[in-house]
Every structure is written in C-alpha cells, then in structure tokens.
Amino acid sequence: MGGGNVKESGMLRLGRILYTNVWPVYHYFDDSALSFPATTRTELPAVLNRLLLEGELDMSPVSSFAYGMATDRFLLLPDLSVSADGPVRSILCFSKKPFAEAVHGRIALTNTSATSVNLLKIVAEKAYGAKPEYVTCEPNLEEMLEHADVALLIGDHAIRADWDNAGYTVTDLGAEWKNWTGKSMTFAVWTVSKAAAGRNPERIGELADALADSKRRSLADVRPVAEKAQAELGGELAYWQGYFENLRYDLTRERLEGLDLYFRYAREMGLLPQEAHIEIWTDNTRIRVNE
C-alpha cells in the first residue's frame, strides 16, 4: 500500500528502532491494541531518520541529531528517550592506543546513527582539541581498525564487540560526555510530525500513553526484557538487567538541558545547519523549552 493510500485510510505509520536499547518502551506495547489502525516499521536509526524526514512515518523514535535537523517540523513525545547519565554501554569507541592519543588520528565512524557520530566529533574536537580524519564504514570492528586509530560502534554491534574484545581500549562516549560537560546525554527521542499531531491529537495522545505505560511496566521489573535480550542476543542475564537498569528512558529537564547543549555544540561546529528549538507535544499544547 502506497504512502498516500495509507494516509487516506487513517493508518498511523509508526517506526521502531532495531536495537535492544528501546525494548523497554516496546515490550508491552501492541499497535493492534490501539483504538485506531496503526502499522509499525522496525529499522536501523539511520533508516528511520530518513523515513521520518521524508514524511513516510508519522511517529518514530529517531536519533537525537535527526530531530535536531528538523525541529521546525517535529515535536517530541513527553517522558520518552534513550538517555544515559554517564556510561551508556552501547556507544563505544575501540582503539589500540589510549583514546586521548588515538583520537588525534583517523576515526572510523559507524554508518548506522548520526547522533553518536556527531557526539564523537564534538568530544574529539571540542574536548580533546583534535582534528582527526573521519572515514565512514560498515560496523565491522576488525576491518575498521585496519584502516583507523579509533572505531565507533553503537547498539548491538558495540555490545557484541565489547563482549568479544581482543584487548582494545574501550571508551564509552556517554561517560566521556558526562565527564566533560557534567550533563546527561540523550541518544534517541520519540518524535511526531507536527502535521500528524495536528490531524490526530487524540490518537497521538493514546499512542504516547501506550508507549509510556509499556515503559513503566518494563522498568518496574526489567527481568522479562533482559530474558528476551539474552535469548535473542546471548550474553549473561545479569549483563542485560544491568544494561537496561543503567539507561534512562525519561525526558526530564535535566535530559533536555543535556540535549540542548549537544545541539548548541553541533551548531557551533557546523554539524547542524540551523539552531534546534526543542518542543514537546502535550495534548495540543506545545511547550517550547529553549528559545
């Protein structure tokens, strides 16, 4: 069914990030239980970013940077994010030398998420004063480090590489950001197009409530989510329980302050073409949190 026909039928087109880090938000979520027709498409962050920007999705979690590229067209759903107040455990740099030294050389970037790529550029250039050469690669650690001094992996690729670590120095970008700025880092946000929010405020409200309810139930007891992750990806149950308990899934003022700082640095470095003005969707009322 084409995009136009989907719109005409009243179907709400939802996205979902492929990585495990969003699982607590979705573990108890069922799009078929909504009172309106909805379809969910699961993709890598980079694909969801493109689909949302091209108008092929009405609501999706996306990398924070993708939202920053188009804050004039999108709103954030309240109380939903993938954030870390320190180590994130799944956005990792691997290097043969200490990170502070290796970051001055060539950096191999993953091709799967803009937020982490630009966070690494901000940390390398602003925190360490480096002027590295960047190359973009498929997420294969050994091949990346054949041609570079630092390799960035995210999500499940990073987790597996960390488990299999063959003696590389591992640097957690969430920890780097926290140590440098004192703020938390928000890696993904749930966005809804202003057009969809204007057309269907009741549906967006129901959807936001359903996602928030799934998140609350998951975080009250992460064991079922951790067991699913262990069954599908391996590893120890205790690892996955710790992984999900470590992440932050809220969107508090503290998260928004960290996100705003990230956007400001990205703008200063020319990574964002314009200023990003964060707006939160809430029952037809738009709250602007930074001017």
TrEMBL record:
EC?
Answer: 4.2.1.151
Source taxon at top rank:
Bacteria
Q: In which pathway does it act?
A: Quinol/quinone metabolism; menaquinone biosynthesis
Reaction(s) this enzyme catalyzes, per UniProt: chorismate = 3-[(1-carboxyvinyl)-oxy]benzoate + H2O
Q: Which UniProt keywords apply?
A: Lyase, Menaquinone biosynthesis
Matching InterPro entries: Menaquinone_biosynth (IPR003773), MqnA (IPR030868)
The UniProt entry's GO biological process terms, in alphabetical order, are: menaquinone biosynthetic process
Give the molecular function GO annotations.
Answer: hydro-lyase activity
User: One Pfam family of this protein, by short name?
Assistant: VitK2_biosynth
Q: Does the keyword Lyase apply?
A: yes
In terms of SUPFAM superfamilies, this protein maps to: Periplasmic binding protein-like II
> Per its UniProt record, what PANTHER family does this chain match?
CHORISMATE DEHYDRATASE
The UniProt entry's sequence similarity note says: Belongs to the MqnA/MqnD family. MqnA subfamily.
What the protein does?
Answer: Catalyzes the dehydration of chorismate into 3-[(1-carboxyvinyl)oxy]benzoate, a step in the biosynthesis of menaquinone (MK, vitamin K2).
Task: List the protein's name.
Answer: Chorismate dehydratase
Give the source species. Answer: Saccharibacillus brassicae
The encoding gene: mqnA
